[in-house]
Write a structure and sequence with these properties.
With about 300 residues, the chain is an alpha+beta fold. It contains four helices and 17 strands. InterPro entries: DUF4340.
């Protein structure tokens, strides 16, 4: 009986090994077939551009002229180098246009005018690290695609209309706004308001300030950074917003984050006449628009 069990065990184990070998063999074959399909697809892919290191992107797709440049690995707006450009936008543009895929290359004798390329709708100029320019011209729409040609080659391709989707943002849409902290009555420890050389302090350690702390915490917690009046204000222009040192109100809020004390500094300026006040935070150069009601609560 014991011998029969051993033989059965060996037989079953042998069958298991065979099944495993078959399984891994199928897996290996599937991977090989998948790689072949990918290689074939890549070989059949038509690229309109092949730019190794894109350093500059100039374009106009109906929102005005844009010029983005890269320096030391960082992209910036050429017209305003201090503008807080969110890097995700130019990086996505560079990824798209460095190797722009075409859906198909057109063959035949049609003229550029037939595709709307004699007077292009959009123009995109790409410059690599050597200073070589590649110009893309967008013509008529065909379904979900655009007709496109490159430089003066006369070759016409179709590319997906999503290729210009990242170019349709206004500059302010591409701003990297500051990160505003989470502040409430539960973590606000102290607020110091300084104006015209005098200061008012609300301290959570002072029982008499409990109502005041709750009020200013409500104001601080309601701040949402969004609309801005200036994204890279110069010192000489601070007075236009009532944010120069002689006119602004300084608010220093001490709060806890991850059991550590942090300090938020807000500079509150004049009103814009539309129900908002101009506000800056910490060492940022962005002038935000915050509602007067919220500002009044902060300055309770």
């Amino acid at each position: 009986m014991e011998q029969k069990r051993k033989r059965l065990f060996i037989l079953l184990f042998g069958v298991l090994l065979i099944l495993l070998a078959v399984y891994f063999g199928i897996q290996a074959r599937n991977k090989s077939e998948e790689k072949k399909k990918e290689a074939k697809a890549e070989a059949e892919t038509i690229y309109v551009t092949d730019i190794e290191d894109l350093k500059e992107i100039k374009y106009n797709v109906g929102n005005g002229d844009f010029n983005l440049k890269k320096e030391g690995g960082t992209w910036y707006a050429a017209k305003d180098k201090d503008f807080p450009l969110a890097q995700s936008y130019p990086k996505q543009m560079a990824e798209t246009f460095s190797k722009l895929k075409a859906k198909r290359a057109l063959e035949g004798g049609d003229s550029l005018e037939d595709y709307g390329l004699k007077d292009p709708v959009y123009t995109v100029v790409l410059t690599d690290k050597q200073g070589k320019e590649t110009t893309l011209y967008y013509g008529n729409v065909t379904g979900d695609d655009y007709y496109i040609t490159v430089d003066n080659t006369g070759k016409v391709y179709t590319v997906n209309n999503t290729s210009i989707s990242d170019l349709q943002n206004k500059l302010e849409d591409m701003a990297q706004l500051d990160t505003y902290p989470n502040i409430g009555s539960g973590n606000l420890k102290k607020e110091v308001i300084t104006q015209n050389g005098s200061s008012t302090t609300y301290d959570s350690k002072n029982d008499d300030d409990s109502k005041n702390i709750a009020a200013v915490a409500g104001g601080l917690g309601a701040v949402k950074l969004g609309a801005a009046a200036d994204y890279s204000v110069a010192d000489k222009d601070l007075s236009k917003f009532g944010l120069d040192e002689t006119a602004r109100i300084t608010v220093e809020a001490t709060y806890t984050k991850d059991k550590k004390d942090e300090v938020l500094t807000l500079y509150i300026g004049s009103a814009d006449g539309k129900g908002n006040r101009y506000v800056m935070m910490n060492d940022s150069r962005i002038v935000y628009l915050i509602s007067e009601d919220i500002c009044n609560n902060i300055l309770y």
